[in-house]
Amino acid sequence: MPKTRRPSAAHERAGAKTHSTRPNAAPAKPKASAKQAKAQAVAKAKAVAPDVPALLGSTPATPFRGNPDIFGRLVEDHDRHRALLAMIDATHGKSPERKRLFKELVLEIKGHAAAEEQALWSSVMRHPATTEDARHAVGEHKEMDKLLADLAARDMASSGWLRRFAKVRDEYLHHIREEEQEQFVAAEKQLAAADIRYMRQVFNRRKREEKASAKVEKKIRLKD
Questions:
Q1: Up-side HSE of residue 137: CA atoms within 13 Å toward CB?
Q2: In a domain, 89, yes or no
Q3: Which domain holds residue 192?
Q4: In terms of Cα–Cα distance, which of 217, 178, 213, 216 is closest to 74?
Q5: Most buried among 43, 83, 164, 173, by the most CB within 10 A?
Q6: What count of other Cβ atoms lies within 10 Å of the Cβ of residue 65?
């Protein structure tokens, strides 16, 4: 999403291949249970507005939830975003909670998407078998950026805002489900285990930087 291009995980890993020889890759952490990982992600969302319920319900099955690698880390953020979306749904009008939760959602998605592109997709794109998956994911990030900017420019108390929010919510939920169940599965096959663990470190560092510099942009789309 950000226009400024930053060094990718591929550059930081000095061109790591499918078979990694990186000596300093962090050792694998124990895998958390899927239930525990999801609960931790929801708790982070709840910290933004403790009094707003996070009626998340069931989440799509994925083999990565709780994993100590880049894919587990990305799913953790996805669950956090699912909770934020559910909490926004539970708010009303221009309430302080809706404003606060929406701002957090925008900054979260912006930071997450930029870091994901740098830590994962920049490397995955180099493999012919997954080039199209990477391009598809990045393209959807850019589209989501536009949808969020449109929402931010509109009156939160209007019924039109709620209708548009529902569309954005459904689009984003589709995007992250597709990543978890299809694109991550394909990407994992192209990467060495040590690289996948190291990408988590890159993602964490990049996300902190990207989220800190992200802003809520406002721009109404001409097409509905």
A1: 28
A2: yes
A3: 32-54+64-213
A4: 178
A5: 83
A6: 24
d(CA 208, CA 96): 25
pLDDT band (50, 70, 90) for residue 222: confident
- 20: Cα within 13 Å, side-chain hemisphere: 20
The reported pTM is: 0.86
Q: Report the C-alpha gap between 39 and 155 in whole angstroms.
A: 32
**How far apart are the C-alpha atoms of 175 and 92, rounded to whole Å?**
26
| Two structure tokens written together for 163 | 């209708």
Six-digit token string for 11 = 């550059």
> What is the C-alpha separation between 92 and 49, in angstroms, rounded?
13
CA 186 to centroid of chain Cα atoms: 18
Residue 177 lies in a domain: yes
Number of structural domains found in the chain: 1
- Residue 205's domain is classified under what CATH number? 1.20.120
Percent of the chain surpassing pLDDT 70? 86
CB 126 within 8 A of CB 147: no
* 147 domain residue, yes or no: yes
